[in-house]
Amino acid sequence: MSDLTDWARGSHTAGSTTHDTYRRGVGPGVIVVHEIPGISPEVIAFADEVVDRGFTVVMPHLFGRPGAPATTGEVLRTIGGLCINREFTMLKAGVTAPVADWLRSLARTLHAELGGPGVGALGMCFTGGFALAMMVDDSVAAPVVAQPSLPAAVGRRRAADLGLSPADRETVRDRAAHGCAVLGVRYRDDPATGTRFDTLTSELGDRFIRVELEGKGHATLTAHRQQVAVDRVLDFFDERLRRA
């Protein structure tokens, strides 16, 4: 089982907000934002694969207990805390979660250190759309949305919403038009993702690369991982972050 033994613990502060981080590897930078309930062994195992591909990976610790297994108890405990955490928005459509400012700062700092075309940003499930919010900053060159699930897909409007303010949505559209592709990964029949992939296709056209797995699974890169999805994400990081 994967753990954090080989990961260097640090922290990042932006404004009045500080979160711990875990870092490992060498090469271009990739920020892996964990899902609920936190930095679980499955999330660490995926991050280890990104490291082994030749990247510097930083995992911010936003909620949950680092290294704890993704049990039902851990999930319920984490969700209870998220409901009152002002850094996140679970139900509101047309808004960007406040934590996006901190994540963008982390991306800028990592890019300034490592250089290159930019850094990768990957969110999954609860944090899936955060990669789009991070893409608003020019430091992010390879955004990946894995089974994006916010806001909760209750009703047509929320099911189609990208978790972005109108201004951020326009910036994402503009960056895509100027060459920044977005990779999306999900199970085709996963109800948690709503119709967001259709929204992204409508907004970004062929700059949105859809990877859709058959079935009703959810966690494409962790609990319900399929190697084809992992390989496509790793290839995307290679294509976008190793350009001359």
Automatic annotation (TrEMBL):
One GO MF term: hydrolase activity
Domain Dienelactone hydrolase: 27-148
Region annotation (Disordered) ranges: 1-21
Signal peptide segment: none
Pfam families: DLH
Keyword Plastid tagged: no
Keywords: Hydrolase
PANTHER family per the UniProt record, alphabetical: CARBOXYMETHYLENEBUTENOLIDASE, CARBOXYMETHYLENEBUTENOLIDASE-RELATED
The name this protein goes by in its record: Dienelactone hydrolase
